[in-house]
Write a structure and sequence with these properties.
By secondary structure, the protein is mainly beta. It folds into two domains: 105 residues, Immunoglobulin-like; 403 residues, Porin (Beta Barrel), CATH 2.40.160. Helix content is 5%, strand content 55%. The chain has three helices and 35 strands. The longest helix is centred in the first third of the chain and has 17 residues.
Length: 567
């Protein structure tokens, strides 16, 4: 009996502690209900809901769309608005401690579907602010079913992302084909509607004729149906590239794709990139290609089973999707002066498991690669390319001193596995393994012609191991990424070249340091540093018959630094 009385007393005490205190001060909740066009809605019902979504109070808006709920005991509530021909709108997690003004927006089903964010490809992938993605974020309204049945539009009350965003960037870089010295970039991103995104970029070298790159991209979200996108990119190098006795090279590409959602479990994406490259001069050469791609995913909770087909070799992980070069395949020439584009056929089947703190992926693949492009640093014996025996077999960039040549094609099969996990401080660690084939350049007699070097290049079975770290430093807000990818040093191409977001060869470092940010963090100055193959590993030097020196590698050491201003 004593024990029963004791428990009863505790229950009464808890009930008294959780009940509103009689005579406690009350507050008011007021606001306005509008539609998506901003028109006030007369006669809309507004309900104040408790934590368990039971109705605490209900009022109706007046002729100006305004409502007032009086005598509200301070606490945590939700607010729901309902109107004829509209979906209900819900604002959750409202901490009401004093007189509060809350405005609500009613939307039709069509408008809400346009606002529905697409599911990200990987919840663990680090998203760059300026990687070109549809900015469907958590601060936009989304559809959800409540426990009691109705479909509502849920909003956290934050404002929409800025509709116009621009960035100016001044950089200096070396060690990359077609890029040397100073460059300026101007990027403009426009969000004309909740469901569409527009991006334009122009990149040029000041006070020279070293060329220009530009791209224009557009993406339209179709809500639960998927999305469509189009990208046009062009690179013009009027006097920057020499090859086969000619001067100047231009490339252009148009990419179109469509993504479709089949319920919550299936996702299908298909598209194609149409590419044209041209060398100008006395002996012009042209190359064209249609590079299709497709993927299919089946999701079951945190697990994903996917198939992917691709024909264009992707750029390393540090490439910016707003750069024209990201959408253009590498080009080179053969012995006969023919211009060729790097391409192939890649197919993979993989399994991925995503959780809040980790990401595990395993896949098997098969590749057939045509015209694999090899990069080399050069020291030409003559005054220019036309004096060298390599003139008819390579593309030469006199600004950076880089050379590109096309090697024989090869086939490969292999497996790739990766594991990524969040660690202390919100940082991430990732490890990966890849097996397959890569091109090897064997030791040759002194002073061979470059045609003999290319003919001796052959595929060899190899493995690659990668360790990478990334994160943001507290206090300074420095964003950083460091990676080390190893594979045999006698290989001059990467293992598993179609792997998406793979790290560059050997030691790489990427840093973005905010110098001054606006109050809301949306703009300001930022310093950038990107170093690839920091220790200059994996070099394969060859002296040609005319005394010229070519140094091949999986990835040349390249340095890029600059300052960006976002507004």
């Amino acid at each position: 009996m004593m024990r029963t009385a004791h428990l009863a007393g505790i229950a009464v005490f808890i009930a008294l502690g959780t009940a509103p205190v009689c005579g406690a001060a009350t507050v008011t909740v007021s606001g306005m209900v509008r539609d998506s066009a901003g028109v006030p809605q007369m006669g809309a019902e507004v309900q104040l809901l408790s934590a368990d979504l039971s109705v605490v109070a209900s009022v109706t808006t007046n002729g100006k769309g305004q409502f007032l709920i009086a005598s509200v005991v301070p606490g945590n509530y939700s607010l729901k608005a309902m109107g004829a021909y509209f979906l209900p709108s819900l604002r959750e997690n409202l901490r009401i401690r004093k007189a509060t003004v809350i405005n609500l927006t009613l939307n039709t089903l069509y408008e809400a579907m346009q606002w529905l964010p697409a599911k990200p490809r990987s919840s663990q992938s680090q998203v760059d602010d300026w990687a070109w993605t549809l900015k469907s974020a958590a601060n936009r309204p989304l559809l959800r079913w409540l426990e009691d049945g109705p479909l509502v539009v849920v909003s956290d009350g934050a404002g929409n992302a800025p509709k116009l965003k621009a960035r100016l960037m001044a950089t200096g870089q070396a060690g990359t084909f077609g890029e040397s010295g100073e460059r300026f970039s101007n990027t403009v991103e426009l969000t004309p509607a909740h469901s569409s995104e527009l991006l334009a970029r122009v990149d040029f070298a000041p006070d020279t004729d070293r060329g220009m790159e530009s791209m224009l991209g557009f993406r339209q979200d179709l809500g639960v149906a998927g999305s469509v996108q189009s990208v046009a990119a062009i690179a013009i190098h009027p006097d920057e590239v020499d090859g086969a006795g000619d001067q100047g090279m231009d490339e252009a590409a148009v990419n179109t794709s469509e993504m479709m959602h089949l319920g919550d479990e299936f996702e299908l994406e298909a598209g194609s990139t149409e590419v044209m490259g041209r060398i100008a001069g006395d002996r012009p050469a042209t190359a064209t290609a249609a590079l299709p791609y497709a993927s299919f995913e089946w999701r079951d909770g945190p697990s994903i089973v996917a198939y992917r087909l691709a024909t264009m070799v992707p750029k390393p992980e540090s490439s910016d999707q707003a750069e024209a070069g990201t959408w253009l395949p590498a080009a080179a020439v053969r012995d006969d002066g023919k211009l060729v584009l790097e391409r192939g056929l890649h197919q993979q089947i993989g399994y991925e498991r995503q959780t809040d703190h980790s990401d595990l992926a395993v896949l098997v693949y098969a590749d057939n690669i045509d015209n694999p492009i090899l990069d080399a640093m050069s020291r030409v014996a003559g005054s220019n390319l036309s004096d060298s025996s390599a003139a008819s077999s390579v593309l030469f960039d006199p600004g950076s001193g880089m050379v590109r040549s096309a090697a024989p094609g090869f086939s490969a099969t292999g497996v790739s596995a990766s594991f990524e996990r969040q660690i202390a401080g919100g940082n991430r660690i990732a490890v990966s393994y890849s097996s397959g084939s890569a091109l090897v350049m064997p030791a040759l007699p002194m002073a061979p012609p470059i045609s003999q070097m290319m003919a001796a290049t052959h595929a060899h079975r190899a493995q690659a191991y990668t360790l990478s770290f990334s994160g943001t430093l507290d206090g300074t807000h420095t964003r950083w990424r460091a990676s080390y990818r190893w594979q045999p040093e006698n290989t001059v191409t990467t293992v598993a070249p179609f792997e998406v977001n793979s790290a560059g060869p050997y030691l790489n470092l990427h840093i973005r340091q905010p110098i001054h940010l606006t109050r809301d963090g949306s703009g300001g100055f930022e310093a950038l540093l990107d170093v690839r193959n920091l220790l200059a590993q994996g070099y394969r030097p060859y002296i040609l018959s005319d005394g010229s020196l070519l140094i091949f590698a999986q990835g040349q050491r390249a340095v890029r630094g600059g300052v960006a201003f976002t507004f």
